[in-house]
């Protein structure tokens, strides 16, 4: 959905950082508070058993969201897209990737992978539930009607099954930025050959769905006097905002269509040879130019990565002044900081490097450093596009 910055790390899975936004704790405590009363009634047990069952079940629910996002992340990685992290926040999860899909096939595979992972989680819950009790008691456990004896394990699995089915159905609604909306965008993109048109169709569906969702929330509040409808209204606002943002981005994409990285880049970037000693690099580059980082190239001019002043200085302070700059490059390979000079400008806008460094390194087909695109150059290109009529 929407990119978010800053999160608390929980763990690593398949080499991917899993974290939570501060807003996640709010929904965690609200769910535990709300569900614990229902579980206490359904279990006919002590408060401690009901509360422990609630906490474990709610945490497993968020675990199922991580499974969903891992579906996106692992398929994206198979498509050659770097995955930085997965973050949970108030209304779900977000997989942060280094770039957007370049083909409708990539878009479809990545979007469909999340619902498929959720479907797999649902099947696991269903098989285990049916093996334990059969369909009759499973139905009673899922709706929490309290008419049959329900164990904590059965209650937890049944509740998870019910809510993951709802989440699966909700995610498949063809409305951007939901997975169903991204699948719809991939289909339109494939049939028309136009990603921008696919985005517009999916975003307009997203706006329509947001209106319906907000209306249901208002109806729920007025009809029942419950504030639970506020969640639907807040979710509608989030979906509507993301859809509007996608429409704005698609309009901007049309304006800058045909503009390539090579059209706006600085063709004479200052770069540090990788074999340069760190002590020499400090004097000849960092102190001379006053920049906090420089691109690093090998003897043939191939882009190797980024050298930051703090890492170079740390090597000197640590008595390792004999090291070369190529040995103290910033974390991440060259692909994380670079973009091909023949790629469209829109790809630069989605680059993590632009946010982290304020610039993107442009390379040719052989990996040679051919230029640098700074955030100021991007800003001027966008201002020029917005100030001229669309073609």
Output the number of helix runs: 15
The helix content is 55-70%
Seen as an oligomer or otherwise, the chain set is: single chain
Which strand order do you get reading across the main beta sheet?
1-2-3-4
Low-confidence spans: 1-5
Summarize the structure.
The protein has 391 residues and is an alpha/beta fold.
In words, what does this structure look like?
By secondary structure, the chain is α/β, with parallel strands linked by helices. It folds into three domains: 172 residues, no CATH class; 76 residues; 126 residues, CBS-domain, CATH 3.10.580.10. The protein is 60% helix and 13% strand. A four-stranded mixed β-sheet has the order 1-2-3-4. Helix 2 packs antiparallel against helix 3 and helix 10 packs across helix 11. It starts with 7 loop residues before the first strand and ends in a 5-residue tail after the last helix. The N terminus is likely disordered.
């Amino acid at each position: 959905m929407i990119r978010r910055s800053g999160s608390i790390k929980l763990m690593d899975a398949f080499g991917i950082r899993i974290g939570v936004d501060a807003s996640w704790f709010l929904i965690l405590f609200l769910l535990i508070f709300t569900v614990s009363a229902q579980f206490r009634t359904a279990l006919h047990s002590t408060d401690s058993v009901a509360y422990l069952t609630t906490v474990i079940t709610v945490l497993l629910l968020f675990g199922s969201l991580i499974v969903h996002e891992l579906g996106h992340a692992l398929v994206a990685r198979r498509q050659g897209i770097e995955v930085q992290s997965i973050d949970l926040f108030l209304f779900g999860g977000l997989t942060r990737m280094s770039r957007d899909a370049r083909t409708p096939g990539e878009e479809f595979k990545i979007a469909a992978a999340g619902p498929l992972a959720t479907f797999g989680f649902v099947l696991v819950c269903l098989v285990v539930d049916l093996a334990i009790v059969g369909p009759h008691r499973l139905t009673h456990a899922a709706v929490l009607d309290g008419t049959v004896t329900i164990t904590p394990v059965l209650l937890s699995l049944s509740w998870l099954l019910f809510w993951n089915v709802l989440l699966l159905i909700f995610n498949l609604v063809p409305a951007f930025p939901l997975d169903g909306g991204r699948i719809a965008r991939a289909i339109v993109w494939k049939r028309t050959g136009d990603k921008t048109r696919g985005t517009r169709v999916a975003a307009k569906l997203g706006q329509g769905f947001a209106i319906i969702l907000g209306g249901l929330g208002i109806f729920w509040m007025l009809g029942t006097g419950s504030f639970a409808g506020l969640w639907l209204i807040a979710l509608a606002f989030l979906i509507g905002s993301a859809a509007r943002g996608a429409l704005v981005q698609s309009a901007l994409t049309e304006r800058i269509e045909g503009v390539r990285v090579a059209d706006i880049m600085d063709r004479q970037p200052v770069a540090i040879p990788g074999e340069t000693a760190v002590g020499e690099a400090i004097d000849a580059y960092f102190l001379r130019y006053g920049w906090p980082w420089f691109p690093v190239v090998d003897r043939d001019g191939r882009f190797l990565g980024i050298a930051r002043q703090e890492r170079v200085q740390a090597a000197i302070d640590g008595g390792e002044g004999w090291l070369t700059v190529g040995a103290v490059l910033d974390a991440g390979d060259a692909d994380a900081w670079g973009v091909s000079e023949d790629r469209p400008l829109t790809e630069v806008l989605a680059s993590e490097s632009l946010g982290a460094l304020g610039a993107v390194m442009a390379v040719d087909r052989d990996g040679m450093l051919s230029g640098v695109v700074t955030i100021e150059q991007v800003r001027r290109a966008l201002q020029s596009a917005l100030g001229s009529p669309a073609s």
